[in-house]
Write a structure and sequence with these properties.
The complex is a heterodimer.
Chain A lengths: L8 E12 L2 E12 L3 E5 L6 H8 L7 E6 L2 E2 L5 H6 L2 E3 L12 H8 L8 H6 L2 H20 L15 H13 L5 E5 L7 H18 L2 E5 L3 H7 L2 E6 L2 E6 L1 H6 L1 H8 L21 H7 L1
Parallel strand pairs in A: 3-8, 3-9, 6-7, 7-8
Antiparallel strand pairs in A: 1-2, 1-4, 4-5, 9-10
Helix pairs in contact in A: 3-5, 3-6, 5-6, 7-8
Chain B lengths: L2 H13 L3 H21 L2 H5 L3 E3 L3 E2 H20 L4 H28 L11 H7 L8 H23 L2 H19 L1 H10 L18 H24 L10 H17 L2 H26 L8 H15 L11 H23 L4 H20 L4 H4 L12 E2 L2 E2 L3 H23 L2 H11 L1 H6 L4 H27 L9 H14 L4 H17 L7 H15 L7 H10 L1
Antiparallel strand pairs in B: 1-2, 3-4
Classes of the chains: A alpha/beta, B mainly alpha.
Membrane topology (chain B): Multi-pass membrane protein
Pfam families (chain B): BPD_transp_2 (PF02653)
Keywords (chain B): Cell membrane, Membrane, Transmembrane, Transmembrane helix
């Protein structure tokens, strides 16, 4: 496990910009994620949260800016090299390997940990066997860690949605990442599942020492786990702060309600009291 | 009338189509299939082969089966009682038979031969089944036979599940024995003659009628007993092949040439060669998801390497033993795979198919080119390739070469299995499923694709080496695009990513047509039909990989 010195920023993003043709998706994005923290990114749909994720994990090539992980520049590297630097992620629409079983999905997540060569695999050497055995045990351990030990032999496509989300997290964690990036992990979850997710994220940080960055619309989840929150709006960072500061910030509420600050009207209420802003979330968690 | 009314009234009429209309529709579909079967000339060609001696020919059997299936479906679709279902089947059979009658009448009344070559009086005679050509009797008997066949199909469908399955098993046994008379008869010849010459199972052309009846009941009884036993053990009677089925299949494959003649051994040898190539392409396409239409190129590299190293002809550059040339051929094919893979593998999906298609042709054209023909013989090829020798014993009989190919196939299967269950195999599967996600997990896409391509090419090279030793000569025309397509079809029919699937696919697509020489020119037509039907009925293949995976744990 990589236990980083607390407060030293593990991830540093400076002036990140991404344009798709003439459309600027994000610009001037600065982001510091402290090692060992849980950092949430929130914002209305289309604010550029996932694009920022995709730039950091090299899914798309940023148009400008710098991305550094533990002081090393990682922008411009291919995705598999970025992954080897210790960034693992999940996806907004679960992206498992649907025709592989639960344990196989998690075994793929260990790809960069395994050392046995091609020839050792063909000959079935002792090292290869030991490593495979260990890898399987480790995979089962992580399936257990996320709470789906019984899904090892099920095809991913046949699993219920909630288990698919957990499997995706297990697959990301098993490769010993320094930073886990979760893209809307609570989407489509009911209140109970949301609470279990909060627990899981806390254990990821506490037991595994992995820094967590998450995009999330479920405010209850965000407020429960995040130490810092960055708010995106219209492709740029609106503000950043602790959950308490963000809840009290009028600009954040205005962004969610589609109003600009300075506009006249009734004083906005704190965000957790505005069901209209995030109806699915508040209605479910109320 | 508004548009909405029109569409809704259309929907109502569709929904209310009576079972009778449905039966007529099925009959027409079956009839159209029969007419097409006759008009492409397949009927006449297959009429020469008897399945049951003096009673049923291959083309009659095929026709009966088409109507049988129509009757089966007609009875299954009916929501009404048994008698109505049987009536529907009879109607479908009558209609299908009538379509053929119309064809016979048309052939005799109008001269269709200017456009439809196969619509000859000979065809009309064959379809008249011994009655005076196109007489009323001849025209009337076709619908009646159709109705009878459809009725049997319906009855089999209406039987209790166990009995229906038993009947189908019996039927399948008779058809298999009749079709592959050559194989079985040559096997029986090796056995001591217990029954005496008067009670031969096989006549000179097909099964004896008596033997056919006996075989039907034997196979049906076997199916019944097997299901009973399975039920007693608390299991569900399963269809399809199971693990013991696989063991039996492999045992059969190993022992087959010993108990049959050289012709069957030669066919088995071809099946083994295609299995080798199939397992190579299985790594590329089945595991890593790389569509490769130029696979034959590596087959050619392997074959030409052995040709150049082992020939005693003028073009030989060395005269070494096959056992030295084989590894060289494998390595050279792998190197060719790597060199060609580098530029090609950066493109994805459909573009990859196009790029590899070009690659496969390049090798063939290169061999034919003026620049290389002094070294590779151009269209004259390379001849006089020595047969492999093992401990002073020359491997030149089809049986010996079959075992050579089989041993290689075994090694390749072993390597495939090992790789499939290792880090690299999982990486290939992951790449096939979702390349972006695989890469985000730290898998280098180009490196792992290149490895898949290289290994696939190496396996194809091994197949090419054996091919050269088998034929004793190599010519560029042996390395056509069709070889790549054949291998691809084997994988699709057998099930992508499944090793037993490769075996089943090679037997079905290479072995069966070779044994049924009557198929001849219709071979690719049936390929096409089989592929389309597979995509509709069982897109995952005859022996899919996922079935094997979950099947083990489900029970």
């Amino acid at each position: 496990m990589h236990r980083e010195r607390k407060d030293a920023p593990l991830l540093q993003v400076r002036g990140l910009r991404k344009a798709f043709g003439g459309v600027v998706a994000i610009q001037n994005v600065d982001l510091d994620v402290a090692a060992g923290s849980v950092h949430a990114i929130i914002g209305p749909n289309g604010a550029g949260k996932t694009t920022a994720f995709n730039c950091i994990t090299a899914f798309v090539k940023p148009t400008g800016g710098r991305i550094m992980l533990a002081g090393e520049r990682i922008d411009g590297l291919p995705a598999h090299v970025v992954a080897r630097h210790g960034i693992a992620r999940t996806y907004q629409n679960v992206r498992l390997f649907p025709n592989m079983t639960g344990i196989e999905n998690v075994l793929v997540g260990q790809h960069r940990r395994l050392r046995a060569t091609f020839w050792e695999a063909i000959l079935g050497t002792g090292r290869f066997r030991r490593e495979e055995k260990e890898a399987r045990e480790r995979a089962l351990h992580y399936l257990d860690f996320v709470g789906i030990p019984h899904r090892a032999q099920h095809l991913a496509r046949n699993m219920p949605y909630g288990d698919q989300r957990r499997l995706e997290i297990a697959r990301a964690l098993v490769g010993d990442p320094r930073m886990l990036m979760l893209d809307e992990p609570a989407a489509g979850m009911n209140p109970t599942e949301g609470r279990l997710l909060v627990e899981l994220i806390e254990r990821v940080r506490g037991e595994l020492g992995v820094t967590v960055v998450l995009i999330e619309h479920h405010m209850r989840v965000v407020m429960a786990v995040a130490e810092r929150i960055t708010v995106f709006d219209r492709g740029a960072i609106l503000t950043e702060g602790t959950p308490g500061e963000i809840q009290a910030d009028e600009r954040v509420i205005a962004a969610y309600l589609g109003r600009r600050s300075g506009q006249t009207g009734p004083a906005p209420e704190p965000i957790h009291a505005v069901p209209a802003a995030i109806p699915t979330l508040e209605a479910r968690l109320a | 009338m508004s548009f909405n009314t029109v569409t809704s009234s259309f929907k109502v009429t569709r929904r209310r189509r009576s079972p009778l209309m449905e039966a007529v529709r099925l009959g027409l579909i079956a009839g159209a299939a029969l007419v097409a079967f006759a008009l492409i000339g397949a009927y006449s060609a297959m009429d020469k082969r008897a399945v049951i001696e003096g009673t049923v020919t291959l083309s009659q059997l095929a026709s009966l089966l088409i109507v049988f299936a129509a009757g089966h479906v007609a009875a299954r679709d009916a929501r009404s009682g048994t008698s109505a279902a049987l009536l529907n089947a009879v109607v479908a059979g009558l209609v299908a038979g009538a379509c053929l009658s119309v064809l016979v009448w048309l052939i005799m009344a109008v001269n269709l031969r200017t456009t439809l070559v196969a619509a000859s009086p000979a065809l009309a005679k064959a379809l008249s089944l011994g009655a005076r050509i196109a007489s009323l009797e001849a025209l009337a008997q076709l619908p009646l036979i159709g109705a009878a066949s459809a009725l049997v199909g319906a009855l089999v469908g209406r039987l209790p599940a166990g009995a229906g399955k038993a009947a189908l098993t019996g039927l399948a046994a008779v058809i298999t024995a009749g079709l592959f008379r050559d194989v079985f008869a040559s096997m029986l010849e090796r056995l001591p003659d217990l029954t005496g010459p008067d009670h031969e199972v096989f006549g000179s052309a097909g099964l004896n009628p008596g033997a056919a009846v006996a075989l039907f009941f034997l196979a049906a009884a076997f199916a019944l007993v097997r299901d009973r036993l399975a039920l007693k053990r608390g299991g569900v009677p399963r269809s399809g092949l199971s693990r013991p089925g696989l063991v039996l299949l492999i045992a059969g494959v190993v022992l087959l040439p010993l108990v049959t003649n050289d012709f069957v051994a030669q066919v088995a040898m071809l099946v083994a060669l295609y299995m080798l190539m199939g397992m190579g392409l299985n790594i590329e396409l089945g595991l890593a998801g790389l569509v490769d239409l130029g696979f034959v190129a590596f087959f050619a590299v392997g074959a030409y390497t052995v040709a150049l190293l082992c020939s005693s002809g003028p073009l030989a550059i060395a005269d070494v033993s096959f056992w030295v040339a084989l590894p060289v051929a494998i390595v050279l094919a792998a190197v060719a795979g790597m060199i060609f893979g580098l530029p090609v593998l950066r493109v994805r999906g459909d573009y990859l198919a196009m790029a590899t298609l070009g690659l496969g042709e390049i090798i063939r054209v290169l061999v034919l080119s003026d620049a290389l023909s002094p070294y590779l013989g151009g269209s004259q090829g390379i001849i006089e390739i020595d047969h492999p020798r093992l401990f002073g014993w020359e491997l030149k009989s089809p049986v010996a070469l079959y075992y050579l190919a089989l041993v290689l196939a075994g090694v390749v299967a072993f390597v495939s299995l090992r790789l499939q269950n290792a880090k690299i195999g999982r990486a290939w599967l992951a790449m096939r499923e979702d390349e972006d996600v695989a890469q985000a997990l730290g898998i280098d896409p180009v490196a792992s694709k290149l490895l898949a391509y290289t290994i696939g090419a190496a396996f194809a090279g091994a197949a090419g080496a054996v091919f050269a030793a088998l034929i004793g000569s190599v010519y560029p025309h042996s390395f056509q695009l069709l070889v790549s397509i054949n291998v691809l079809a084997i994988l699709v029919i057998g099930g992508l990513g499944s090793l037993p699937g490769v075996l089943v696919g090679a037997i079905v697509l290479i072995g069966l047509p070779e044994l049924l020489r009557e198929f001849g020119e219709f071979r690719y037509l049936f390929y096409g039909i089989a592929l389309v039907a597979m995509m509709h009925v069982r897109a995952e293949g005859l022996w899919p990989a996922a079935y094997a995976k979950e099947g083990v744990h489900a029970s």
